[in-house]
Amino acid sequence: MLAINGGTPVLDEDAIAPWPEVTDADRDAVLRALDRSTPWRWPLEDVQELEAAWAEHSGARFAVAANSGTAALHMAVAATSIGPGDEVLVPADTFLASATCVLQANAVPVFVDVDPATYNIDPTKIEQHITPRTRAIIAVDLNGLPADYDALHAIADKHDLIVIEDGAQAHGATYRGRPVGSLGHLAGCSLNGSKCLSALSEGGLFTTDNERWHQNALRVLMFGDEIRGKTREYNARIMGWNYRLHSLAAAFARSQLERLPAMSQVRSTNGDYLAKSLMGVPGIRPPTVPDGSTHVYFFFPALVEPEAIGLDVDVEAFRLAVKAALRAEGVPLDEWQRVPVPGQTLFQEMRGYGRGCPWTCGHSATQTPYDPDAYDVATDICRRRLVLGSSTSSFGPPNGMRLMNEYAEAFHKVLAEHQADLVDLTMRFAAAD
Ligand SMILES: *Cc1c(COP(=O)(O)O)cnc(C)c1O
Fold this sequence. Notes:
The protein is an alpha/beta fold. The chain has helices at 24-36, 45-58, 69-79, 97-104, 149-159, 211-221, 247-258, 260-278, 315-328, 345-348, 376-384, 401-417, 419-432; strands spanning 62-66, 87-91, 108-112, 134-140, 162-166, 174-175, 178-179, 186-190, 204-208, 284-285, 299-304, 385-389.
C-alpha cells in the first residue's frame, strides 16, 4: 500500500545524510582559522588559501573569494564595466541571482529560452536576441550540468561578447575535461551551505584569467578602493561594496575543497545511477547527461508527464500527487521555481532600481515588457519539475547506492506498482483545485 494511504514508507527517517558532510578535518580547519583570524588584517590567510586552492582547482589564473555567489556574480559583471545601456543574455530558467547581477550593474537582462534536453541556455536561440547593445552571455550550469560552452564561445567570438559562467550549482562538474569555474571568461560560484562546495553558511568565488578584470573585481569587493599588495589610498576609484568573505567560512570551504573531486565523483555516480534506474518509469522524465560532460546533481530534476500514463489532467494536479505520494514514502521531493525568472514581479513590473531604471534610464534602448509566455521550454520545465538534491536530499557522500536504490524503489512503487492509487490521488488534487 502507498505510504500516503497508510502503508509502510520505503525510506526510514534517517535514510538520508544531510549535506554537507562535516568531518574532523573540517573541524580542525575551522579551529585553526579561529586562532589565526586575530588581529584582523586583510586579506586573512584563510581567505588567501581558499583563493589559491580554487584557482588551482578551476585552472583560472585569478580567484577572489566573496561573501556570496550573488556577490561573486556581481563582481564578474561589474569587473567588465558592463553598465547603463548594455544588454546581457541570461537563461530564462535559472536562479534569480543570475539575472539580478545584471540589474545591479544598471544593465538590462535579456532572457533566452533553455534547451529541452539539458535545461541550460539554448545556443540556437541566442543570436536572435543579440543587438548592438549586447555585451555578454551569462551561462548557468543549472542543476550541476555545465552549459554548452563550445557553442557559446563560438557565438561570443563571432559577436565579440563576454561569457560569464554562473557555476553556483556545479562545482566539481566538468565540460570536455575542463572544470566548472573556468569555462567562461569570468565566473561566479556560490559557497552557500547547500551548494556542491559549501562554506557551511554563505560565501562565493570569482575567477578570471584577465588581469584587468581581476583588479576591477578586487575593487568591487572592497569599497572601490584598495588593490591587494598596494598601500591603501582611501580613495574610491569605482563603485565598490564590501563583499569580503568570513575567515571561518573560508577555512571550512578550503577543507571541503580538498575532498571536492572525491565528493563530485560520488554525486555523479549516484545521480547517473538513479537517472538510469528511473528510465522507463511511466509518468516521470529523469535528467540526461550529454557526452563530454559530467553532472554533479546539485539538483536531480525529475519532470512529471501525466500524458505518458494516458492521464488527461492538469499537470499541476499530477505534480502535487507525485510529490505528496513520494514524500510520504520518505523521498523529500520539492518544486523549485514555478515560473521562468522574467515572470517574477521584479521583471514583470520592471521595478529594478525604481522609476524605470535601468530599463528607461535614458541609456537603454526602449524596452518592451518581458513577455512571460515567450519562453516555452522554460515554462514547461517550471510546470513539470520536481527536484531532489540540495541539503536535505543530498546526492553527496556519505549517501550512496543504498539510498539511490531506495529512491528508485519509491519511484517505482508510486508511479508503476500503484499507478491506480496515484491516479485516484491526482483526481482528488484536481477536484480540490
Ligand atoms: C545559489 C545560486 C546563486 C547565488 O548564490 P548565493 O551564494 O546564494 O548568493 C546564483 N546562481 C545560481 C544558479 C544559484 O543556484
